[in-house]
Design goal:
Blueprint lengths: L1 H35 L3 E10 L4 E13 L3 E3 L1 H11 L2 H21 L6 E5 L2 H5 L3 H12 L6 E6 H5 L2 H14 L2 E7 L6 H4 L6 E4 L1 H4 L6 H16 L3 E4 L5 H9 L4 E2 L10 H9 L9
Parallel strand pairs: 2-4, 4-5, 5-6, 6-7, 7-8, 8-9
Antiparallel strand pairs: 1-2, 1-9, 2-3
Helix pairs in contact: 1-2, 3-5
The structure holds ligand C2E and magnesium ion (3 copies).
């Protein structure tokens, strides 16, 4: 009986695996179609400077709506794109589109707005990345200092020497960097000083249970201190309510981003958002 169960279990498991692979293949085909047909849009989430309660930047977040599947979350298709290499054409599109739209925001009356763009591992490893970004910057005439590339610790830690070289090259173009999802990857503390980064983004998993969870409060305070002692800015992600905000304000967090202030929104919506007081854009 035990054996039989074992077998059944194995078969069940393997059917599930097959189904997952089929779903992946289907999604991959749809993703290729989406790339060819330009089915992506960027949404923008505001980032607020707590020193003056003003917006200083936005993060570009990709959105894909498939005819059949509806809105597919980037949490689902970005990892697939990363596995299949499709992230390169998708990421190229994001870089170009976000820089072009950033320039439009600047010309629409928000000349100081920063544009945060997420880079995945393969994009960061792309040998042409520096050249691509350099070309995009000259084509769009975007002020490079207003471009902030978001990378995770694990991306940088894959090859520390190469990463430092690449970051220095990109820095020479004038762009800035932030470490996304900080605290969830490698413990790279000793390397932080080697990287020419400007900002740590506290992962929202540490923010979620503030201020009630003792471990999270300790971690968030420590990250804020660490950032300040290393002369870095610090922004908290996933700020959803006044309790989160109050804790972060009381503990000297510089900046915040989250549903409490604004969800990711379309280009049209973000312009409206920025136009309305008190969200005057400030230079930081
Ligand atoms: P991320 O870069 O850490 O982006 C933050 C995610 O948290 C976004 O999810 C955002 O919508 C969500 N978020 C923001 N505020 C809150 C909040 O208050 N509460 C909660 N529960 N969530 C909040 P999204 O847009 O689904 O993106 C998920 C991830 O997909 C991103 O995480 C990023 O790693 C990746 N991604 C998104 N767009 C791009 C892109 O254009 N290129 C690349 N390479 N990756 C992207
Ligand atoms: Mg990000
Ligand atoms: Mg993040
Ligand atoms: Mg992330």
């Amino acid at each position: 009986k035990v054996k039989e169960n074992g077998k059944n279990h194995y078969r069940f498991y393997s059917d599930e695996m097959n189904e997952e692979m089929l779903q992946d293949l289907e999604l991959e085909a749809k993703l290729r179609h989406a790339i060819d047909n330009n089915e992506f849009v960027l949404h923008y989430q505001p980032q607020i400077d707590l020193n003056n309660d003003r917006v200083f930047g936005v993060e570009a977040l990709i959105r894909w709506e498939d005819e059949e599947l509806g809105l597919v979350s980037p949490g689902k298709f970005i990892p697939l794109a990363e596995r299949t290499g499709l992230i390169i054409p998708i990421g190229d599109w994001v870089l170009e589109q976000a820089c072009r739209e950033a320039k439009e925001f600047h010309e629409a009356g928000f000349p100081n707005l920063k544009m945060g763009i997420n880079l995945s591992a393969r994009q960061f490893a792309d040998n042409n990345l520096v050249e691509k970004i350099s070309n995009i910057l000259s084509e769009t005439e975007l002020n490079p200092a207003k471009l902030e590339l978001e990378i995770t610790e694990s991306i940088i830690m894959k090859d520390v020497k190469e990463s430092v070289k690449k970051l220095i090259k990109l820095k020479k173009l004038g762009v800035k960097f932030s470490i996304d999802d900080f605290g969830t990857g490698y413990s790279s503390l000793s390397y932080l000083k080697e990287f020419p980064i400007g900002t740590l983004k506290i992962d929202r998993s540490f923010v979620d249970q503030l201020p009630s969870d003792e471990n999270d409060t300790a971690i968030v305070k420590a990250i804020i201190d660490l950032a300040h002692n290393l002369n870095l800015n610090v922004i908290a992600e996933g700020v959803e309510n006044p309790e989160h905000l109050q804790f972060l304000e009381q503990n000297d967090c510089d900046r915040i981003q989250g549903y409490y202030f604004g969800k990711p929104m379309s280009k049209k919506e973000i312009v409206k958002f920025l136009t309305n007081e008190p969200w005057k854009v400030v230079d930081v």
